[in-house]
Design goal:
Fructose-1,6-Bisphosphatase, Chain A, domain 1; 6-stranded mixed beta sheet; 35% helix
Length: 259
């Protein structure tokens, strides 16, 4: 096993192990116990024990600098507040970079047993852990949004987006997640795969640990992602046609494709 393969194996196994731990904690006491920090430190110890010169960027602990060309980016619980209220749209996000480029990415929701992954030189996949089903991504459903709902998650500061969508489509077509509606990464992957588009509009841009893993899986699946409004709005679309339809409806003129 070469250096990259060893790290890819470690990444996949680590995400599964964190998911197992997450499923066996009482969701009502997670924040009080500092579970996210505990899981992140355990991951860091495991990685540095095997790869002591790697760098690790974690949501809870910040940057651990190393001297190798490899860097890990982890969020052990994406959607902590949502999970603390009993929600299940959460995930473990992990990305592995080599010389700044993502070579491995894993997003796992242990409560619904959906495991999204991308590893260099392999097709992105979705695995249903409970029944061992595995499919290649992307799964295309339509070239336009004509027959599909739009999922919007926005801060109260950005009601204009929601209103414009409502003017363009029937209200029944607009599915609105609450402002803190769980994991950005899981929402982006699960909604884009099944429905065609997900709009995320908040007061602050998403961080690397929130979105890097999902972005690499989406790009490998030929999906389109753009950023606008100084990074506060992200549009995830199955294809270019759906993306362009949404940017037109929302009057977006400053969209920048996210790589």
């Amino acid at each position: 096993m070469n250096q990259l393969e060893d790290r890819l194996s470690t990444g996949r196994l680590s995400v599964m192990e964190i998911g197992y731990d997450l499923r066996h904690y009482n969701p009502l006491v997670k924040l009080d116990l500092g579970l996210d920090t505990k899981l992140e430190r355990e991951f860091i110890d495991k990685v540095l024990n095997k790869f002591p010169t790697d760098s690790i960027l974690g949501e809870e602990t910040g940057m651990t600098n190393g001297t190798s060309n490899y860097e890990w980016v982890i969020d052990p619980i994406d959607g902590t507040r949502y999970l603390n209220r009993g929600g299940k749209r959460v995930s473990i996000n992990l990305a592995l970079k080599y010389q700044g480029n993502i070579v491995g990415a894993w997003v796992y929701n242990p409560f619904v047993q959906e495991f999204y992954s991308f590893e260099q030189n392999a097709n992105p996949t979705l695995e249903k852990i409970d029944n061992m089903a595995k499919v290649s991504l992307p799964i295309k459903t339509s070239e336009t949004l004509r027959d599909m709902p739009v999922v919007y998650q926005g801060s109260r500061h950005y009601r204009e987006d929601y209103n414009l969508l409502g003017e363009a489509y029937s209200q029944e077509k607009i599915l609105k997640l609450e402002e803190t509606g769980g994991s950005i990464a899981y929402n982006a992957l699960q909604i884009t795969k099944n429905l065609g588009a997900y709009i995320y509009h908040q007061t602050t841009p998403a961080n690397a640990w929130d979105i890097d893993a999902a972005l690499s899986i989406l790009h490998a699946s030929n999906c389109v992602v753009s950023s606008s409004n100084e990074g506060n709005r992200l549009i995830f679309a199955q294809n270019q046609s759906i993306h362009d339809e949404l940017t037109s409806i929302l009057n977006i003129t400053d969209a920048t494709y996210v790589k």
